[in-house]
Amino acid sequence: MALRYFAVLTLVIALATTSKRAVADPDILSDFIVPPNNTKVDGTFFTYTKFRGLFDEVPETFKVTKAALTEFPALNGQSVSYAVLQFPANGVNPPHTHPRSAELLFLVAGSLDVGFVDTKNVLYSQKLQVGDIFVFPKGLVHYQYNSQPNMLAIAVSAFGSANAGTVSVPLSVFATEIDDEILAKSFKTDVDTIEKIKAGLAPHK
After folding, report:
1. Is the dihedral of CA 194, 196, 200, 205 positive or negative?
2. I need a labelling partner for 72 at 20 to 30 A (CA). Which of 36, 40, 45, 203 fits?
3. CB-CB neighbours of 63 under 10 Å
4. What letters, b where the CB count within 10 A reaches 16 and e where it falls short, cover 147-160?
5. Are 72 and 42 in contact (CB under 8 A)?
6. DSSP 204
7. With contact defined as beta carbons under 8 Å apart, do 189 and 169 qualify?
8. Cα(124)–Cα(163) distance, rounded to whole angstroms?
């Protein structure tokens, strides 16, 4: 009997460990990873310059500029990435999730109303001032909003993954091919309302 319980416990631990490793960035067996088409590796390979001039202009709408795996190949295997978030007056980063990493946000200008919702549907919100840091736990729905009518807000976010991923709640629900009737029933409304929401999210031509 004891042997059977030990075997079950061993299996549970193994599955938990495997699951944790599956969602994290993989460990690498070298100092860094060089893309196959890269023939020269020097300091330039490890330098990201796309943030230069980023603050010269104020964006008209919310803008995110990433330094992640796609933009900065040197991050492959390093389990880190950055993003600069720029919020014009009344700018909002709509509810979204990062499936592969927590987000550590550092506010460097202005103020932000932020929050996340846990798996018990409890909202944790805060109004941040310059110098504040706020953590959004991995995989949870969260948002950021600049409620100031005449002030720009800027934040820098760090991620524990080179490819944290972003899933927009409005777009994943209303800008995909989920049937309008299913959405109407799910949100306890009518199809006309769903169609109006979808039209509002459609790209402007």
Report:
1. positive
2. 203
3. 17
4. bbeeebbbbebbbb
5. no
6. P
7. no
8. 25
Going by C-beta distance under 8 Å and a sequence separation of 6 or more, which residues neighbour residue 55?
86, 154
Q: Output 65 or 13, whichever has higher pLDDT.
A: 65
Contacts of 72 (CB under 8 A, 6+ apart): 48, 81
Locus of tokens 């020269």: 40
Distance in angstroms (rounded) separating the CA atoms of residues 102 and 99: 8
pLDDT tens for each residue of 98-133: 999 999 999 999 999 999 999 999 999 999 999 999
Distance CA 96, CA 33 (A): 30
Token pair 């946000």 in the structure block, residue: 105
As a whole number, the mean pLDDT across the chain is: 88
Identify which of 134, 187, 161, 138 has the alpha carbon closest to the alpha carbon of residue 77.
161
Question: 């803008």: which residue's tokens?
Answer: 63
Tokens 């603050």 correspond to what residue? 55
